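Task: complex structure prediction.
Instruction: return structure tokens for all chains below.
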Amino acid sequence: MKSAVVVFPASNCDRDAAVAIEQTTGKKPAMVWHADTELPDVDFVVLPGGFAHGDYLRCGAMAAHSAIMRDIKAKAEKGLAVLGICNGFQVLTEAGMLPGALMRNAGLKFVCRAVGIEVQESQSVFSRKYENGQQISFPVANGIGNYFADEETLDRLEGEGRVVFRYAEGDNPNGSVRNIAGILNEKRNVLGLMPHPERVCDPLLGGTDGRILFESLFESLS
Amino acid sequence: MTAQNEVTSEIIRGHGLSPEEYARIEQLLGRAPNLVELGVFSVMWSEHCSYKSTRAHLQRLPTKTPRVLQGPGENAGVIDIGDGDAAVFKMESHNHPSFIEPYQGAATGVGGIMRDVFTMGARPIAMMNALRFGAPEHEKTRHLVAGVVAGIGGYGNCMGVPTVGGEVNFHSSYNGNILVNAMCVGLARAGKIFKSAAKGAGNPVVYIGSKTGRDGIHGATMASAEFSEDSQEKRPTVQVGDPFTEKLLLEACLELMETDAIIAIQDMGAAGLTSSSAEMASKGGSGIELDLDRVPQREIGMTAYEMLLSESQERMLAVLKPGREAEAERIFQKWELDFAVIGITTDTGRMVVRHQGLVVADIPVHALSEEAPVYQRPLARSVPQAGEPSFDDTKPIVASLLQLVGSPDICSRRWVWQQYDWSVMTDTVQSPGGDAAVVRVHRSNKALAITTDVTPRYCKADPFEGAKQAVAEAWRNLTSVGATPLAITDNLNFGNPEKPEIMGQISACIDGIAEACRALDFPVVSGNCSLYNETNGEAILPTPAIGGVGLLRDARHMATIAFKRDGDAIVVIGETRGHLGQSLYLREIEGAESGAAPPVDLAAERKNGDFVRGLVECGTVDTVHDVSDGGLLVALVEMSLAGERGVRVLPPLGRHPIPFFFGEDQGRYILSVPAEVAKSITAHARTAGVAAALLGSTGGDRIEIDASGAVGVAALRRAHEDWFPGYMGSEELPPTN
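Output:
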């Protein structure tokens, strides 16, 4: 499996994503600068966490229009697997690649902590090695992580099995509607999620629940 | 020089210069300074930049061990951590700006200390802080806590550097002067440390980073004066932070440092362009010429005075090898940052500044640095508070414990830490809430332990013992996780040094730090002084905050505070005498801040710590907590809450339970080990001359204190967790991303 991690000017989880991919798959991803116009030949690309362009106004709004995103969007339509983590999820919604939007956390504060998550959907390249209903834990670290979409969109997401991760009941850190933590696009090859699976791929960091996500990708795409 | 006639005695006073200092400036220049030059002198000779009150005393601090690669005097200290790696770190205050504008003051404090570290060639890998606020019931405290915490998080989170812990305390002496001390630890290659000496003539001086605006003019001078009722009017002197630009600056600087184009580099912090250029020339033994017309400017019509004194953030000054400008410029263009050649180094020993074709300042560099005043200010040694305080010996232990666990200085800081991204960079192996944070050296099993400590109420009662205790506690916290303590950075926060009793506190605290550092092989490699922390003549408690860094050879052998097994024996290392003086028990339960500060026996401290560290290093012990604020029972509760299991505490035979359980004797650790291991540990301790005693055992879901009663872990958790969110509940928060 060949992969790439996009580097926006103030991405700050780009290295973490690269380390997690290398640790689980044994292969280093290509690091791709946001101003590049074309992705290298890869099976899978990560839009990492961070503050792409400072994001003082709408998070991810500028990144969604960067040169590399045009190519990513085109290739995603042809089936390229795209994983947007945290800021990457925000970029995907701004780019129109996923429905809905991320709003300021309900508590108005940045929240960094481990949260309980229930796997809702193992039918995807990102989640096939999880079991439906499996209880896992990922950390969140965001101020703008409160997912919102209209009722019709939400019903559709749920009806089509596109809600992959949900915050455990009573452990929703940001007020996200219907406890949604991560969703797929219609073609099921684009996943956006607020929690950070790349931060729990090493037992010394408090867990390895995140490895399963990267192993799923590896198994699906190799 | 057109401005010459504008300097009046009122302007001189307005610049914080005494008549004697002004006379000295005239003597050094051989003429009267113009207004621009006066501004330059005023910031360079300010307390903040020149350390004029403390410099003579700071010389007494030990600064060398074989591990020290760079001691005080550079942007940050550097220690050797083996394998060609170096840890680069410093702590710095941003007290005055944070009181006036808490979000931006704290944010730019974080930004400033990060620049100090990456300007040395290090990638920042962890942030810590030491925060002190006024009494919880003071009308401004809640607003200041909310703003400072959000500001620290807002900046550090965007930078992607984990904020891994720190201290938050409350005391009425900080009502008008909060303390925001931020510490940054970075990682560099020992052979690639960048310094600030601009050696050689004819080398281009380049400006990189943000444009210069009118913000922060005279911040250094503000930080060198007392506050009064009208301090809020100083808001325009507080800078505004832009962590996005700082992130770009960090990456661009590290990329430039991969080349060999840099001769010297320094961040523009306090006193901006003036102090960075003067200090670089001074350290390099060179002169410097600047052309202000080439400085990237955010606003039109800025004067030379404004540009030289601006404290706009996210800027750096570098001296490059001639001919390497284009290569450097390409890197800064990639990161969309300003880059401009604004001057050249010379061999004249003078700082010459041009603006719109005129020479607006021409000053011998040594006059700004070496010739800056150094004062031996009069000092009055304070008599240490003495005596055993009285206490009501009928107070019920369990009720007092619940009250202490839920008190502002002991309760959980979760509300604070959750606003800091402490897990980014995926190397934080011990998160906030333990004795020290532990951050792995990337791609190795080696790790750095980091802590910040000081107990100001001890320092007030006895500046010498209190400062010893601050160093000893930092050393102890690093030891608790199993790290070998290597070096400290100090952040000395005091009142007005022109008052003999304050100067006495400063001097005694420095002596205390020095003595503890010598006894524990724990040198000072960097530091910062923040004086004039007074409002309307009332000084803060003396607060010499200590930031300690230690090394773990293998992070897999690390101890944490959480009880891990039921049925473990709990052993206390170090002697429990029952010292109640200046304890939190006295303050919270008896309402008294009285008695002697607990003395620190540095020989016992070292012996006890070396013993505990040895047990962690060899894998015998995985559960350690130092005993500090609140004494034995509070430490046990913290271990219980972290490990989600109860404790059965043995009765204190022949001792009164209140001083035994709540006294704050120093040099103590609590360990939890399987019962059979406990026997060998106590035997081993006896031969090593280390006091060790059985304190109880783990298990159940209550803290049972024999005759004194019991309390559920759940009730303790509620008391511990509820105070902070309950207190902050009603505060509206500033926005963060």
